[in-house]
Amino acid sequence: MHTMRMFPQVIQERGPVIIDKAMGIATGLAKTAVPVRDGTLKASIYAVRHGPLGFKLGATAPHATFVEKGTSPHIIVPKSPGGVLRFRAMGGRPQHFKRRGRWTGVRRGRGGRFTGGGNIVFAKRVHHPGTPALPFLRPAAEEAQRMIPQFTWEEVQRWLRSRGWK
């Protein structure tokens, strides 16, 4: 039998192995590239088969899309009218000031707002500057996709060897 005529049979038999290899590579690359704060996003990365010769790579964490695609600048307001926002400021550095010759306390910025550095902040509204995209899923899936021809060739060779071809 001619080798090219056997190719569909090879793919039918070895296709799941090829896809499993690609899924493992994609998942590993995504988990390596994902930014980690508390590990929730990294732990939520998954890959599942999609159709006979495909797979889906994704993350179930609620903030996965915002990390992957970024956000545009937006205004954050309290849920209830007349309410205030309370959050821990993650950006910036505390501005310490000197009192009686020692560095103590945190200096407040204009309007009584803290400048950041992990302090509790209260505000009526926040002008969020947006966040840059930190893609980790798409590059991992694309890299795994680029490796599928190599995996296919390896599996074709393995299949042929198992049938006595050299």
Explain what the structure shows:
The protein is α+β, with helices and mostly antiparallel strands. It has two domains: 3-70 and 132-162, no CATH class; 74-128, no CATH class. The chain has four helices and eight strands; from the N terminus they run H-H-E-E-H-E-E-E-E-E-E-H. It has helices at residues 3-33, 40-43, 64-69, 137-162, and strands at 45-49, 55-59, 74-76, 85-88, 97-99, 102-104, 120-123, 126-128. The strands form four sheets. It has a two-stranded antiparallel ribbon with strand order 1-2. Helix 1 (3-33) runs antiparallel to helix 4 (137-162). Residues 93-99 and 103-115 have low confidence and may be disordered.
Give a topology summary.
Blueprint: H1 3-33, H2 40-43, E1 45-49, E2 55-59, H3 64-69, E3 74-76, E4 85-88, E5 97-99, E6 102-104, E7 120-123, E8 126-128, H4 137-162
Antiparallel strand pairs: 1-2, 3-8, 4-7, 5-6
Q: How far apart lie the N and C ends?
A: 15 Å
Based on CA atoms alone, the radius of gyration comes out at 26 Å
Q: Structural class, judged by helices and strands?
A: alpha+beta
Helix content: 40-55%
Instruction: Give the helices and strands as they follow along the chain.
Output: HHEEHEEEEEEH
Give the strand tally. 8
